[in-house]
Amino acid sequence: MQFFLLLLALLLAAGPVAAQKVEAQVHTLDNGMKFLFVPRKGDPNVSAGWVARVGSVNERPGITGVAHLFEHMMFKGTHTIGTKDIDEDLRTIEQLDRVRAEIRAEEEALIEKHRRGLIDDPKDPKNRNDQHTARIEELNALLARQRELIVKDEFDRIYTSAGASGMNAGTTNDFTIYFINVPANKLELWYWLESDRLLNPVFREFYSERDVVHEERRLRVDSTPTGKIDEQYDAMFWQSSPYSWSVIGWPSDLEGLTREEALSFFDVYYAPNNLTAALVGDFETEEAIRLAEKYFGRLKPGKTKPEVVRTREIEQLAEKRLIAYAETRPKVRIRYHTVADAHADEPALLMLASLLNGRTGRLYKSLVLEQKVAADAGAAVNGMKFDGFFELIGVAREPNKPEDVEKALYAEVAVLADQLVGERELQKVKNQQMAGDFRRLQSKSSLMMQLLSHEALGEWENINRFSDRLQAVTPEDIRRVARKYFSEENRNVALYHPREKADAPAAGEQQ
User: Fold this and answer.
1) I need a surface site. Which of 161, 206, 379, 461 has the fewest CB within 10 A?
2) Orientation of helix 66-73 relative to helix 259-269, angle to 10°
3) pLDDT tens, residue order, the chain (511 aa)
4) Angle (nearest 5°) at CA 451 between 10 and 281
5) Residues with Cβ < 8 Å from 471, sequence gap 6 or more?
6) How far is CA 326 from the centre of its chain?
7) Sign of dihedral through CA atoms 413, 415, 419, 420?
8) pTM to 2 decimals?
9) Integer Cα distance of 380 and 349 in angstroms
């Protein structure tokens, strides 16, 4: 700890220093699956995980949310885990698919009636015929039977009993990642369990889990003060890109997803040639490679190669604005189209955001302390796999309005586009960035996650190039990107007004 504090002090006081480099041994199986090994002796523990290069950007209208749904389904077990009777289990799943297909046909008929104005609500039970009602009762009986056969949370129980911890997963726009910490002497258990859920998955509770995800959407989006507005803002910002829908998916797609569609998605994007695993901790690389060959080597390459995302965002030609009323503080969001991850302009944009952010950053000092127009303000850069954006956010301080904060934000950006930032100010944020990079590399789990995310977005080696690219940013680079991207026709603005007046529309209501 003393060494780290000393290094941190030196970084903040001195000029540029060399970034710490990560050395990873790479091993690729014959089936195309890649492994990244970073041995670290001492702590008898291993941070292990794997990433599938698939996220919401790989979906299409009709199946939005399927990538996130699969994050849930991958914990449902295999032929040997999660069931009391695999044969009866599989028969029940087959029956569920048949009955659900019949229900879907009835639902489509009601949707058509609704389209023609013959009924008001296709989901209202009173509009169902006797056959539709009977099929729902049959479905519920099969779901009850399935619950009797399932051994709940067996994956977690096996891992926990072996001393593992932190099992979790996450889905982003661009990738889905699975991770856990396991004792070094239980590493073979990780290899077996993770390869088994890829080799012999059984997607139990598909239809009920689909409803769980739908409920998650209601909690995360529909029931939050600005959830629906934020979602509409994203859809407004991305005109043609598949980034225009949220990771959790559209409600109608979640309701209509079929297990057949999900299985086809799995076969393409969860094939070993679309996966990378990373291990960081106390292990012998030769033994780790042997186990990779033994267990993950059983997986067959995908028959269909995942396609590169074809539809890209078109150039924005005019400013877009969204005005909303909600139970929230008055604030403004200003977003500009910028660049994808690892683009040549990304380091300068990240340094620009660092100059604006924090209690010592330009936005807080100017808008909060000096002008007192905002209660808080900040900036963010989001470089995704195929595109990216830069965003400014400000919360108005009474009696100011979001429009007042908007003008103040433009003024700060204009200064960066007009004047060169001082070398000392720029070096300060570079040193802070370097210290943060160093700190993140000390944690095994953090390093493992960084390796996998860098690999999913492009190349894991970018973890070693990132800091050097940031340190190379010049004041001229800052001014150049500010002038290039912060134009009126390239921006999108969302103004959030508190819903206080009786005549102000609620979020989601017609204005």
Assistant:
1) 161
2) 90
3) 333 333 333 333 333 444 578 999 999 999 999 999 999 988 899 999 999 999 999 999 999 999 999 999 999 999 999 999 999 999 999 999 999 999 999 999 999 999 999 999 999 999 999 999 999 999 999 999 999 999 999 999 999 999 999 999 999 999 999 999 999 999 999 999 999 999 999 999 998 888 889 889 999 999 999 999 999 999 999 999 999 999 999 998 988 888 889 899 999 999 999 999 999 999 999 999 999 999 999 999 999 999 889 999 999 999 999 999 999 999 999 999 999 999 999 999 999 999 999 999 999 999 999 999 999 999 999 999 999 999 999 999 999 999 999 999 999 999 999 999 999 999 999 999 888 888 888 899 999 999 999 999 999 999 999 889 999 999 999 999 999 999 999 999 999 999 875 345 554 444 4
4) 80
5) 16, 19, 430, 434
6) 25
7) negative
8) 0.90
9) 9
Residue span(s) of the chain under CATH 3.30.830.10 come to 25-83+150-298, 320-498
Look at residues 149, 321, 326, 150 and name the one whose alpha carbon lies nearest to residue 224.
326
Tell me how far apart the alpha carbons of residues 387 and 242 are, in angstroms, rounded to a whole number: 10
d(CA 211, CA 487): 43
For residue 478, CA distances in Å to 227, 377, 464 come to 33, 20, 22
Which amino acid, 254? L
| Domain 25-83+150-298 grouped into CATH 3.40.50.300 | no
Q: Which residue, chain included where needed, has tokens 């980034």? A: 243
**Pairwise CA distance, residues 34 & 173, whole Å:** 21
> Could you give the 3-state DSSP secondary structure of residue 377?
strand
Alpha helix ranges (H) inside 299-400: 346-356, 362-363
**Cα 464 to the center of its chain, rounded Å:** 23
Superfamily (CATH H level) for 320-498: Metalloenzyme, LuxS/M16 peptidase-like (3.30.830.10)
User: Residue 144: which residues within 8 A CB-CB, separation 6 or more?
Assistant: none
Q: How far is 265 from 259, CA to CA, in rounded Å?
A: 10
Closest CA to 330 of 376, 297, 296, 367: 376
In this structure, the number of other CB atoms found within 10 A of the CB of residue 366 comes to: 19
Question: Can you say how many angstroms the Cα of residue 498 is from the centroid of all Cα atoms in its chain?
Answer: 29
Alpha-carbon span 473 to 483, nearest angstrom: 16
Task: Please give the structure tokens belonging to residue 181.
Answer: 């910490």
Spatial contact of 78 and 196, defined as CB atoms under 8 Å apart: yes
Tokens of 329: 């503080």
Cα separation, 95 vs 262, in Å, equals: 17
Q: Which residues contact 218 (CB under 8 A, 6 or more apart)?
A: none
